[in-house]
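Budget justification aside, the reviewers requested a transparent look at the raw inputs and outputs of the sequence design task funded under Objective 1. We therefore reproduce one unedited record. The lines immediately below are the structure tokens for a 682-residue chain.
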């Protein structure tokens, strides 16, 4: 850390600590809020529930003469009082009556005949007193039914023990502390991620947007410190406050849940929440890269705002995107695979959940730290680039708004636009995407469900990928021809692209075969993905090619090799190829581990030729090759796709792979270059 960075860090920290309102909102309020809300709410709830259980409830029985035994047993219950209202239904709706029991006319005859007697119980589910009265009445009816059953058994000289053929003793092998972590871990993980996010947002707004409002940013910019030193000092200040906020909230939550955990957790768990000091340290260490990511992102976004209020508007969408990613761990029966360690925000939430339960997966921890550190470094680099732009630091009123004015319109997207589009598409895919695939169990899909899922995939591609890219480009006023590289491809390049798509399928199949033999567990997950696809690729070949080859080629290439590649490659082509390839693999889930080299190839070809249509040709040919191959192997039936894991590689297989590699390399080298394309996209 240089001297300038230390000076700026101390200065920014001193300014933040002097703002009592900021300190109260970031540090004091959350620490006090958890005990006041949770402990107070649990105490009040327990007290009210105790009062409710001690109260008496009014019950009306119509047809009591047909079941004198049941009426007598209800009268014997201390908390249930019988009454005879004129209009029991109206009294039940108004709350004067808690329950209304109707006894059938043949109830006594049915009981005497040894069949089930018919009862109708009316209650008001919108009132707590009525629901509590129903619980008490159910216990009375269960006792009455048990008495009738014993009488019937005694009349037939049958031993009661014959009704219980098994003696079951259920034992939970999980220790109480692990059960407490299982129950409260997901909620605590989400809260900690949210606290680290909000702990970074408010100081970033004050140190960036607030500084512009106070008019002190000019003094800082004319100091001997470099722009990089300024950004680093602000980043360290925001990161420190975020960590302190998270630490205080973690301590507050631990104390709070230790007090109310026994009330919140089910009784069968048998223990209140408890967390050791060493686990607290591990949780903070796990949150460190995530806090750095939020600090860097909030610093970059806040630097673009002219005022504190405008900065809040910019950071609100980030919170809306991050919240669903963090709340994924609250989904029941959620068992994340290893590649979830690469998903930002979600990886930290999953890791914290695992730590609270007591699970330590070294590979997952390494993936979280590596990926999140890379994301944080990229966001910090973005913030440094923004601070080097005078149009960002000293914005004019003309530039404010959702769409820039005609005279100041940006013709091409930048890195921030590409990153925002990816976050938008990812949020839509997580939140809205499952709505298109709601068919229940996927292991037994009917023909009608297959058609519904196929239509859902079509809707996902169009509404979650293609339309957001087109609408965002139109909203921001980008030049569509240059943004999406809508250059007519040369026939020679188009033919070479088809060859690249054909050979890439062979090479990636071999690459997948290599991976499933190196990584344990990969084969099983790929097989599950293949089995799901086997049920979808049924029907006519033309329809399957359109849905699984043509539509992804057009929609995904428009997003990734269109607007996103243009934005990420403004500064460096290598950066654009790397980022679009990684993000392209992320949205494909477990298959992304097998096809991520294809994303790099597609980006390279589009940048080299300057035409998006070449990327679409490669994408379509690659997908179509697998579908047509499966069609041929299945004798005209698309019952299942080609297997990714042949039992062994023979000489012919090795020769095919080597030949495909030679044709692939030659095709890439023979592609026409576009020397003016880079300068054109500046």
């Amino acid at each position: 850390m240089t001297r300038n960075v230390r000076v700026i860090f101390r200065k920014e920290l001193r300014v933040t600590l002097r703002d009592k309102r900021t300190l109260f909102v970031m540090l004091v309020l959350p620490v006090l809020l958890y005990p006041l809300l949770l402990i107070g709410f649990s105490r009040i709830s327990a007290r009210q529930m105790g009062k409710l259980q001690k109260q008496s409830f009014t019950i009306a029985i119509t047809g009591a003469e047909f079941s004198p035994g049941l009426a007598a047993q209800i009268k014997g219950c201390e908390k249930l009082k019988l009454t005879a209202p004129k209009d029991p239904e109206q009294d039940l709706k108004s709350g004067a009556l808690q329950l209304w029991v109707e006894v059938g006319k043949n109830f006594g005859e049915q009981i005497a005949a040894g069949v089930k007697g018919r009862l109708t119980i009316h209650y008001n589910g919108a009132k707590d007193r009525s629901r509590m009265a129903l619980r008490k009445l159910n216990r009375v009816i269960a006792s009455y039914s048990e008495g009738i059953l014993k009488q019937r058994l005694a009349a037939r000289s049958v031993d009661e023990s014959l009704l219980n053929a098994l003696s079951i003793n259920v034992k939970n092998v999980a220790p109480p502390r692990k059960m407490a972590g299982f129950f409260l871990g997901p909620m605590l993980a989400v809260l900690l991620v949210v606290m680290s996010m909000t702990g970074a947002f408010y100081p970033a707004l004050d140190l960036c947007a607030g500084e512009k409002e106070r008019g002190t940013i000019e003094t800082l910019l004319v100091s001997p410190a470099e722009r990089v030193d300024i950004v680093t000092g602000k980043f360290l200040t925001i990161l420190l406050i975020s960590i302190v906020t998270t630490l205080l909230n973690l301590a507050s939550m631990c104390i709070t849940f230790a007090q109310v955990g026994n009330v919140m957790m089910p009784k069968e768990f048998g223990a209140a929440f408890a967390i050791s000091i060493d686990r607290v340290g591990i949780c903070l260490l796990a949150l460190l890269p995530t806090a750095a990511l939020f600090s860097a992102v909030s610093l970059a976004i806040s630097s673009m705002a002219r005022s504190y209020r405008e900065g809040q508007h910019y950071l609100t969408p980030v919170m809306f995107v991050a919240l669903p990613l963090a709340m994924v761990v609250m989904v029941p029966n959620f068992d994340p695979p290893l590649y979830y360690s690469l998903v930002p925000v979600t990886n930290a939430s999953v890791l914290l959940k695992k730590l609270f339960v007591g699970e330590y997966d070294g590979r997952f921890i390494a993936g979280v730290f590596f990926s999140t550190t890379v994301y944080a470094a990229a966001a910090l680099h973005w913030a440094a680039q923004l601070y080097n732009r005078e149009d960002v630091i000293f914005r004019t009123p003309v530039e404010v708004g959702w769409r820039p004015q005609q005279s100041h319109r940006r013709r091409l997207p930048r890195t921030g636009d590409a990153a925002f589009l990816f976050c938008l598409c990812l949020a839509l895919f997580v939140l809205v995407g499952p709505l298109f695939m709601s068919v229940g169990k996927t292991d037994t899909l009917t023909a009608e469900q297959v058609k519904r899922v196929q239509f859902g995939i079509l809707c996902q591609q169009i509404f979650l990928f293609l339309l957001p890219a087109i609408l965002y480009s139109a909203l921001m006023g980008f030049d569509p021809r240059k943004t999406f590289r809508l250059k007519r491809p040369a026939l020679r390049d188009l033919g070479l692209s088809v060859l690249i798509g054909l050979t890439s399928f062979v090479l990636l199949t071999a690459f997948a075969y290599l991976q499933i033999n190196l990584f344990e567990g990969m084969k099983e997950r790929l097989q599950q993905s293949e089995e799901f696809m086997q049920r979808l690729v049924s029907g006519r070949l033309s329809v399957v090619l359109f849905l699984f080859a043509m539509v992804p080629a057009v929609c995904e290439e428009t997003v990734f090799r269109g607007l996103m590649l243009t934005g990420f490659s403004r500064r460096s082509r290598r950066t654009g190829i790397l980022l679009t390839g990684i993000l392209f693999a992320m949205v494909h889930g477990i298959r992304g581990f097998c096809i991520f080299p294809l994303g790099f190839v597609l980006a390279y070809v589009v940048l080299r030729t300057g035409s998006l249509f070449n990327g679409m040709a490669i994408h379509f040919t690659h997908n179509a090759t697998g579908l047509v191959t499966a069609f041929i192997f299945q004798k005209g039936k698309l019952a299942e796709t080609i297997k990714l894991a042949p039992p062994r590689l023979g000489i012919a297989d090795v020769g095919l792979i080597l030949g495909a590699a030679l044709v692939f390399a030659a095709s890439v080298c023979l592609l026409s270059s576009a020397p003016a394309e880079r300068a054109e996209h500046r």
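Residues 396-409, 635-647, 676-682 have pLDDT under 50 and may be disordered. The CA atoms of residues 570 and 679 lie 10 Å apart. Computational costs for records of this kind are itemized in the attached budget.
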